[in-house]
Design a protein that fits this description.
382 residues, alpha+beta, Gyrase A, domain 2, Elongation Factor Tu (Ef-tu), domain 3, six-stranded mixed sheet, six-stranded antiparallel beta barrel, 10 helices, globular
Length: 382
Amino acid sequence: MSEEDEFELEPIEILELPLDAWHRDKGARMVEFAGYHMPIQYEGIMAEHIWTRDNAGLFDVSHMGQLMLTGDGVAEALEAMVPGDISALQEGKMRYSLLLAEDGGVLDDMMITAVPMGLYVVVNGAVKWDDMGYLREYLPDEVTINNMEDRALLALQGPKAVDALLRVVPGVDALYFMEAGSFFWGPKTDPEPLWISRSGYTGEDGFEISVPAAHAQKLADQLSAQPEVRPIGLGARDSLRLEAGLPLYGHDMNPDVDPVEGNVAFAISKRRRAEGGFAGAERILDALANGPARKLVGLSVDGKMPVREGAPIFAGEAQVGIITSGGFAPSLGAPIAMGYVNAAHNAAGTALEAEVRGKRVSVTVANLPFVRHHYHRKGANT
């Protein structure tokens, strides 16, 4: 065996989603993302983006981790690792939260739902194995972590999502934003339970549907057969969430970022701000009280040239920040971005410049979101 052979690395296996063949049959262009073959587009990112804003888009997000945490005191135990008031969650209610490192850095963002068994937690696909390892290390032995690998996760997003889903799954219109429940789907003689939440990551009204992987294709076929629905890829999912001002973990947030500078301080519940008791509380509560040294902000871009992740941001000759997400916003007809900017320069309306391929592009700090959210909130005027 040669020295080169001895140290040759095994190729990393790219996994397939339960709907891999379904996507390919629909004409999807597949790419590697988070360790899976995933559809980046079908007919085109621009068309898919606009369709979702006006109608309903069907997304396959089965790469994400679906975890069930059970055991006595599970909510209180998880509160040592997240800054939300999890023990106060009522059954069927959801909360956006953050998995925190010991120093307060963000290891992942997640959706936590109180269910009869315990807590149903959805985490990002790229770090789900790290998340599970971290949870196993720091949660007490009484808490069991079940990785629900036998389930797929679909997202139906857009203003007509409720109309389409209601024909397939009766009763889902009773849910409001950040509520979830179990619904029966299929023939009355042998119905299949689905776990459905009124949530998503596009800024639109919509639903996320947890379905047994063995039945995912049948459900996807029924949903895509509705006149309002088309399959949508990762490309449009990214442009939709960027317009909605929603950070993407691994780009806009990472372990070097705390929730305050990451502009997700809303995830720190009132009780937790008063009591602390979560990982990195001293650092995070200090940033809340005194302001962060930098902050994730929106940036409008002059002209038509998009600014991409990694582009430095300048005030005159001084670098004052960096772009973390950027691209063209189909709903606005212009490029937009998000990035970290030092405290002295991150007020809305501040004129700055981003450097793209050696050229300066004028950008302006903008309020987030770029496009207004359309969540179906309880008590809101509709």
